[in-house]
Fold this sequence. Notes:
Layout: H1 2-17, H2 26-43, H3 47-50, H4 53-57, H5 71-83, H6 92-95, H7 98-109, H8 117-137, H9 141-164, H10 173-188, H11 192-208, H12 220-243, H13 267-291, H14 293-296, H15 300-319, H16 343-366, H17 380-399, H18 404-412
GO biological process, one term: DNA-templated transcription
GO molecular function: DNA binding; DNA-binding transcription factor activity; zinc ion binding
Domain Xylanolytic transcriptional activator regulatory: 195-263
Amino acid sequence: MKAATVYASDFFQTVLGQSPAADTSTRVNAALSSLKQMIEINSYRSIADRMPPSRRETQNDGIRDLTMPPLQSVLTILRELKETKLATLTVVTLFISKDRLIDCCREIYFAVDNFSLPTFLISNATLRYLFQEKAQASQDPLSREEYRKLSQLCQDNLETAINKFSVLAPPSLENVEAFLLGAIYGIEVSQPMVAWQLVSAAAGTCQTLGWHQLVPKSDSATDRKIALFWFTYLLDKGLSLRLGRPAVIHDDEITLPERLDKADVPGGWRDLLTQWIRHSRLVGRAYQDLYSPSALRKSAQERGERARNLMAALKRIMDDSLMPLGKAHLMERNTVDFGSAPNRMIKTVLKADEVWYWTTLTFIRRAVPSTQGGHGAVSPACLESARMAFEAHGECMRMTDPSSETKALYLLW
Length: 413
């Protein structure tokens, strides 16, 4: 979003600078100046800046001294998580099981010895989403406010944990889980550089532990490592293109099959995850072939040819998807196994995939110079795919109106 704001600011300055009225429009110049200052200020904000002053003072203190939600409230909401699949954690639990998230919370509340910082981070990230969802679903104003306060308490704890957590932490499975949940939070609160640091740490840890070259076996320990690796891969590739940086994980180093074979993941989700992995691989190629420093030195003709190859590959991915492009609303739950996930949620996830398709296509087309000239040299095809992305996004928002939980899932992912 920051990158888009910067581009919009530069675009308006270019257009207005060429306008005869540019010199006389002091109000416009003042507005542009304010926009520039906002961008510069936001560029230097960190998670620490978001923390209440009282929380900044505890950064060097023990995390055991931080307040947690009441035990009875936590037990009630964890029981619900165990028995059902709450919307905002649907995607997370494909990679980190519900039992694992619950165990981390248990370790905090029933610790015999000191619990670890990663466990504290994981448990507060989990509880924050659970209380947040309960607040959205509650019809009673008093209950809603109570859930909101508990969610905010967990958010404060989560931010404290992120600030205390070092990207140089020893390589371990628990640290990868904590890095990823911290990164998701960074994305959610528009702190992409925080998310990038944490995802990069997770990617480095995965490779240090050799998870990218594991031999799949029929055991839960290996499945868990493979799931975390692919979770890291999706975030790594996605942030790479948006931030204009090379991904940490190189495709040539991976020997794992492009699929997730976890026994506790329904077939429909496994098929969808395979599609996400393929799409993420293409997103990584888009950066390397079109936006990397070496790619930008290529001729317009060569970059155009690369873009056409990527567009063809992207179309093949969508042709193999569970539903044809534009048909997500027709999905019926009984046609594919998505476990206990509601049909509305599945339709929203598939429609969100269409948003991702059009967004990726826009990134690819943006790299091809327009033959028609114009401000910014954006081609009509690029503008069209951008419009389609906004249209698909609008459909997603309309589809989720009856369910604030599903809307939260869409906006998060």
